Structure formats: structure tokens, C-alpha cells
């Protein structure tokens, strides 16, 4: 591999399969790396059973990935009949990435290794993002972060960005001058970052990237189809189909903010209620310092407990309506909820949403599992780093299906 480059049970019983043809060695390598990442540790026997590859093919791939520095051997598993088996794990030092999240109230930048460990990170709050303060933040932060991670810029394999779609929109909601936001229309985030650091740059919607963090670094899960809701200044999310993030034709899949919610004072969209911007407006003191409390990490929301209690009830009810609408489109097995908030607040919000969901009309709806995400504040920056890992070192089931469809169509 180049360095730079309703029958749910039945579906779970047919995992990713490989091919024993030598011409698809690259795909099979990605498959093994994918499985090691999701299982954390994997033996040759397990890989053979899961993929359908021959034992010899798996041995060849394991040796190649070890030699190239992607895999490390773990301690042998003893105490079983026969020779001890030696599982492998990812080598964290195989690759290093910078992940930047451009938020509407903050910037977050992280150095992430190949296994998904955050080696260093920094957050800077702002009232609204501008190209100037973004580039200043990146220029000032990168040297310090690399020093903390004991890395040099030449050891970084990519600088990837998670950013909201249309940063110039929603002026009315934020109260910032439209001129301050319009500058984003002509600003090439990808090109400017690439020129500044001389690194490959990929860019993705911020909520989709947060979803990708959960999918790439969140470990093994039973659900193959799940929806991800991320609550920040606005609410957004992502869609996972066939075990892979599905961004949609324009990268907007899972943009749950515009979902309509009935009978709610203050707006008829999910984003009008289940977002931190709404909580900002519910604070008795809306000064910059008090608003900043919401986006700090770690954050302490106890001084604004009354506003938080009212917001949780409002957001939970609106989320319940959004869940029903989402399930009417795709029969998701699981919902994952995460956000820029203290863990205790997130757990309370999820419990309120579950309670409210049971009070909705659920005819024709099968309820999914609902659980908290794992990464909170850092999800966007971590997911930005994960874009390159996903593209180069994992199997995307949806892309495989699309490519197969293209091949079949071209032969007809």
C-alpha cells in the first residue's frame, strides 16, 4: 500500500469479504487494517474466518503490513490447544495527522496518530470565525502542538479540516454582521491551509466528520446502519450505512437541523431548539464570558443550571420528533448522540429524548438503540484526521457497491 496515497441478523452474519486474487492485494490490505482497527486486536485465524481469505493470503498480508510498519505484534495468547496465536494491533506511529475543526464559536486543532490517539490539542473561542483569525490560530498553534506531540511538520501526513457548510449563512441567528461572514464565500480553506503548511488537505462537513470519528475510532459495534446527531452551536449529524459513513451526493447527508418539529414555541426546525445557540439565548446573562462557558473544555455548566434544565426539556422534546422523522426514512438500528457539552448534561439530554420519544405516535416505527457518543468536544477535529485514514486505510462498503454498479452498468 502506497504511503501517500427486516433481517439485521443476516446482514451481521455476512461481514466484509476479501479476494484471494493477487491483483487486489491493496484492497485486501485495507480490509485487514480495517478489521484490526475495529477489533483492536486480531489473529490470523480470526482474519481468515472473517474475510474468507486463505490462511496463506492472510499470512502474506500480515507480514507485509508488519514490514511496512502498520502493524505491531501483541503478546502471544497461550493456554489453548496447539501453538499459541499472536494477535496484531495498529502501530500508532505509522502515520500522524493534524485535524482542524472550524466551529461557529470555536476552533479546535489536534494532532492524531494512526490509532486515533489525540497526542495534543488546543481550543480557541471566538464570537464568529473569519479567515484571518482562522489562519492566525493555525499558524500560532501548529508549532506548539507538534512540540507537545514530539513531532515535526515533516512527519505529518495530512492536515484535514472539518467545517460547516456555508459558513456565510445564519447571520440572523448569530447576530454578526453579514459582511463578516460573506468573506467565506470566496475564501479557499483547503487551498490556503495547503499553501500555508505544504501538506495534503482534505475537507469535510464538520458534523459528518464528527460522525466519522465515531465510526473510525469508536471500536466495534453490532449496528451497521446508524444515525449520528451532534449538538454544537447548531445541530447536525451524519449517516452510517453498511458500516461506512454515507456523506451523500453533496456531502450533506445527516444535516438534521432543518427537520421540522411541531407545536414548539421559538421555531419549527430542530435547530431552533436542540442547539447550543438556543441555550445561549436562554441564559440570563448573555455576555461573551458567559457564552464562552458553553464551549470551554472542560466546561462547568452548574452556574447556569436553571437555563440548562429548561433547555434539556425543550431540546429533548424536539429531538424526539426528529427521531421519528428520521426513522420514517431509514430503519436505523441505532442513534448516537454527542455534542459540545459536559458528559452529565449529554446523558440527561439523551434520557429526556428517550422519555419524550415514547410519548410520540410510533405506529410503524421500530425504536433503535440510543446511546451517547464517545468523543464530545474533540469529535470534529478527531474526525477531520479520520478522513484520510478512512479514505486510504479502510474499506468503504458504499463506495464498493457504487464502483461495482458502475462496472456493471458500463458493460451493459
Any chance you could write out the topology, listing elements then pairs?
Layout: H1 8-12, H2 25-39, H3 44-51, H4 55-67, E1 71-73, E2 88-90, E3 96-102, E4 106-113, E5 118-125, H5 131-148, E6 158-163, H6 171-174, H7 178-182, H8 189-197, E7 203-205, H9 206-217, E8 226-231, E9 235-241, E10 244-245, H10 276-282, H11 288-295, H12 305-329, E11 334-339, H13 343-357, E12 369-372, H14 379-393, H15 397-411
Parallel strand pairs: 3-6, 6-7, 8-11, 11-12
Antiparallel strand pairs: 1-2, 3-4, 4-5, 8-9, 9-10
Helix pairs in contact: 2-4, 3-4, 9-14, 12-13
Short characterization:
The chain is of the alpha/beta class and 412 residues long. It is 42% helix and 15% strand.
Task: Write structural notes for this entry.
The chain is of the alpha/beta class and 412 residues long. It folds into three domains: 8-90, Winged helix-like DNA-binding domain superfamily/Winged helix DNA-binding domain (Arc Repressor Mutant, subunit A); 94-208, Nucleotidyltransferase, domain 5 (2-Layer Sandwich), CATH 3.30.420; 219-373, Nucleotidyltransferase, domain 5 (2-Layer Sandwich), CATH 3.30.420. Helices cover 42% and strands 15% of the residues. It contains 15 helices and twelve strands. The chain has helices at 8-12, 25-39, 44-51, 55-67, 131-148, 171-174, 178-182, 189-197, 206-217, 276-282, 288-295, 305-329, 343-357, 379-393, 397-411; strands at 71-73, 88-90, 96-102, 106-113, 118-125, 158-163, 203-205, 226-231, 235-241, 244-245, 334-339, 369-372. A five-stranded mixed beta sheet has the order 5-4-3-6-7, sandwiched between helices. Strands 10-9-8-11-12 form a five-stranded mixed beta sheet. Strands 1-2 form a two-stranded antiparallel ribbon. β3 and β4 form a beta hairpin. α2 (25-39) packs across α4 (55-67), α3 (44-51) packs across α4 (55-67) and α12 crosses α13 (343-357). The longest helix is centred in the last third of the chain and has 25 residues, at 305-329. The protein is globular, with a radius of gyration of 22 Å.
Amino acid at each position: 500500500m502506497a504511503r501517500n496515497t427486516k433481517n439485521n441478523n443476516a446482514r451481521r452474519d455476512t461481514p466484509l469479504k476479501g479476494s484471494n486474487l493477487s491483483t487486489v492485494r491493496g484492497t485486501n490490505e485495507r480490509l485487514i487494517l480495517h478489521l484490526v482497527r475495529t477489533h483492536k486486536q486480531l489473529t490470523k485465524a480470526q482474519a481468515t474466518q472473517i474475510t474468507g481469505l486463505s490462511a496463506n493470503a492472510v499470512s502474506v498480508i500480515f507480514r507485509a503490513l508488519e514490514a511496512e510498519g502498520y502493524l505491531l505484534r501483541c503478546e502471544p495468547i497461550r493456554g489453548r490447544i496447539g501453538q499459541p496465536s499472536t494477535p496484531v494491533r495498529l502501530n500508532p506511529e505509522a502515520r500522524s495527522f493534524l485535524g482542524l475543526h472550524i466551529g461557529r464559536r470555536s476552533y479546535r486543532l489536534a494532532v492524531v496518530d494512526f490509532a486515533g490517539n489525540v497526542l495534543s490539542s488546543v481550543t480557541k473561542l471566538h464570537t464568529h470565525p473569519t479567515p484571518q483569525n482562522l489562519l492566525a490560530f493555525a499558524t500560532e498553534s501548529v508549532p506548539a502542538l507538534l512540540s507537545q506531540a514530539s513531532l515535526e511538520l515533516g512527519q505529518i501526513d495530512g492536515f484535514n479540516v472539518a467545517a460547516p457548510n456555508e459558513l456565510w449563512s445564519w447571520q440572523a441567528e448569530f447576530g454578526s454582521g453579514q459582511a463578516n461572514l460573506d468573506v467565506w464565500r470566496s475564501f479557499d480553506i483547503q487551498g490556503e491551509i495547503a499553501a500555508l503548511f505544504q501538506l495534503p488537505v482534505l475537507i469535510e462537513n464538520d458534523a459528518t466528520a464528527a460522525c466519522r470519528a465515531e465510526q473510525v475510532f469508536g471500536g466495534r459495534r453490532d449496528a451497521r446502519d446508524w444515525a449520528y446527531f451532534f449538538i454544537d452551536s447548531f445541530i447536525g449529524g451524519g449517516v452510517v450505512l453498511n458500516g461506512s459513513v454515507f456523506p451523500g451526493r453533496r456531502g450533506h447527508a445527516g444535516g438534521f437541523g432543518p427537520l421540522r418539529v411541531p407545536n414548539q414555541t421559538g421555531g419549527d426546525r430542530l435547530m431552533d431548539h436542540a442547539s447550543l445557540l438556543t441555550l445561549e439565548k436562554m441564559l440570563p446573562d448573555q455576555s461573551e464570558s458567559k457564552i464562552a462557558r458553553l464551549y470551554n473544555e472542560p466546561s462547568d455548566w452548574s452556574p447556569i443550571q436553571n437555563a440548562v434544565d429548561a433547555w434539556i426539556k425543550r431540546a429533548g422534546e424536539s429531538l424526539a420528533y426528529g427521531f421519528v422523522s428520521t426513522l420514517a426514512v431509514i430503519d436505523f438500528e441505532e442513534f448516537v448522540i454527542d455534542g459540545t457539552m459536559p458528559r452529565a448534561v449529554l446523558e440527561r439530554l439523551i434520557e429526556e429524548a428517550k422519555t419524550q420519544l415514547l410519548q410520540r405516535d410510533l405506529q410503524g416505527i421500530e425504536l433503535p438503540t440510543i446511546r451517547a457518543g464517545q468523543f464530545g468536544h474533540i469529535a470534529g477535529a478527531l474526525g477531520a484526521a479520520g478522513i484520510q485514514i478512512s479514505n486510504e486505510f479502510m474499506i468503504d462498503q458504499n463506495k464498493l457497491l457504487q464502483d461495482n454498479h458502475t462496472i456493471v452498468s458500463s458493460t451493459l
